[in-house]
Structures are given as C-alpha cells and as structure tokens.
Structure prediction request, 367 residues.
Amino acid sequence: MPLEPTGAFQQLVGERHPAPWLRREAASEPRRRKLHERWDLSIQGTMPISIQQRPFSLSDQVENLAPAVRQVFADPDPVSQTNSPRLGNRPRRVLPRAMDDAERIRENLTYLAVRDLIERDKVNAARELLSGLPLEYLGDPLILRLLRILARPIVKKSDKQDTDRQKDYAWLRDHARDYTGQWLALDDGRLVAVAATLRDIRAKVKALRLNHPPLLHQVK
Amino acid sequence: MLTLTSDGTAFTTGRMRFLDEDPASPEKSPKVYVKIEPGDFGSFVFAQLDTGAAWSILDSQIAEELALFDGQGQPITVDTRFGPMRGSLGRTNITMLADEGESIEFEATVFVSREWPAGSFLGYAGLLERVRFAVDPQQNFFYFGSW
Prediction:
C-alpha cells in the first residue's frame, strides 16, 4: 500500500529519501492505522497531529523531530553478528536494537502519537501507549524524555515546615493593591522587601538573613 | 491537629491554611491558593489548586529561576484560557508546606512557558494525582497527604 502524499514522514524528509525506506514503511501502514484506531487519535491519513483542534505548523514539527529523523539516515546498519563465523564456543549475544529504518520510523511515529495525546490532555492513554513499547524503543532519547515527563510524581515526606500565615494573608488583603506589578516578601504580617522581579526580591530576601523563609507574592 | 483517616489509616498527614482570594486580582471568585516551595527556593509562594487542569503550571519567573527553560523539557503546546500556549513539560521538585503535620515533596511534571502571564497552578497529571486532599472552607484549612 503506497503512502499517501500527506504522510508525516514523506513531508518531513521531502524527496531526499524516497524509495527503500518508504516501501518498508508502507508495509507497516496497516499496523500504524490500527495503532491510531486503538488510541482514538481521530485523524485522517497518517499525520498524527490534531490539526483540527488548533493551527498546525509543520515547520514546528520538523524542528522538533529533526534530530530523530536525521538519526534515521545517519546511522549505518550494524554488521550482522549472527552471520559471523563462530570463533568461540558460543556466538556473541546480539542485544535487541531498533536498527532498521522502519523500526526507527515507528519510534518516531510513536513519539508523534504520544505527543499528540499529551497535547489533547489524554495523559493516561499516552502512558499506556508508552508502557506497551518494546524494550528496544527505550534507547531513543525522544521516547526516554516522554517516559520521564509522563512518569507519575515521586512523593516523599519533607522536613520543611511553615507556620500559619493568617497575618500575611491579612496584610495582602489590606495593602496588596498598592503594589501592582511588584513582588512582595512577607514575614509575620510585615512587608520585608519589594522588588520588580523575582530574581531581585530573592536577592533582597537573602541579604536580610531572615530566621524563617518569607512568603513571596507577585501582585498581578 | 485534626487528621483524616480512612479505614483506620491516615488519609491526610498535613494541614495548611489556604488563601481564598488573590486580593489584587480582578478575578474575585473564591479560589484555593496553597503554599509551595519550588525546588530549594528558600522562600514560599502561592499556587492555585486547579483539579480541572491537566498539568501544573509554574509562573514564568519561577521557571526561569529553576532553570526550566534550559531546553531539556518536552516541547508542547497547551490550550489555556489565554489561548494556545507554547512551552515545555519538565520535571522539578515542589514541596507542599504544612503548618501542622508533615509537608510532602514531589518530583513533579510541570508546564512552563515564557508566554504564561498568570501565576502558578497545581494540576492533576504529574502532581495532584498522588495527593489525597480535603478542603475545609469554613476555616480555610487544606488537608493533604500522599498515597
């Protein structure tokens, strides 16, 4: 089945790499469509971007995907170890790696699909899609980054402690309007510093050497 | 401190008093602003509780101070009340501060954007999904704990 002219990778790489890898990719088209249907991507053709929801800029996608796409064509195929003569007692173990073009393209499609799910707030679906990936996909830096940001939060007890800030809250209710646009630092119901930027007020607070961390607030 | 239990086990372990309005904001409907410490900031700031938001958002100046615009995050466009916002998702530490009981620290996923004009928000994915919490609007107490 030939790829449609609007296929994501055809657009990404243009006419530079037309033949062999596109033929292999075309063979995986049914599988990709199945993937899209399974994850309710609500798209037509092979472009896993929610173009119906917001203005779509292909150049943005190319910019973000460029390193991964370049990698597809930059890495030479590895020398096959399974076909080498057996010099020892046992052949060297061949670790699973997604080395051929089609596999790399599937990785990149997975990246696009997960990113699309994230942008449509379908976080659990994105997590599920990633959790079902073969191990060899996990070497891709883009996939690793998705795994990291989609990981559930790690929670632990903290020794840090605050006190009841009723006095600071009351000060804000009474006086905050007088400091529009400013960052304020409050401690025990007192204004201890004012600055135009967060960086400046942090510097001022640090110089004050307060016994207790102050409450910072920007009056919008 | 009043502790909430479920089947005899602690449901929440810390409590703080929250602010229910931003005094200088034109938006006057009541909100829940809780106290957090982003990273090892050394000072505390407010973040609005927003269970309807998919992601937490950090104030752009806070994100700058935490070096979250370093290009290591996942580029993404998020639909916000200010329109589509270009930014990135990244991981950072956030501490939810207790006035009584235990504070809890998260390694959480947050959205940051230089274009973001509002303050900080605590959303569901990547942060609140691991927090048990309850609100006492009579006394403005926010009870929280992890699971």
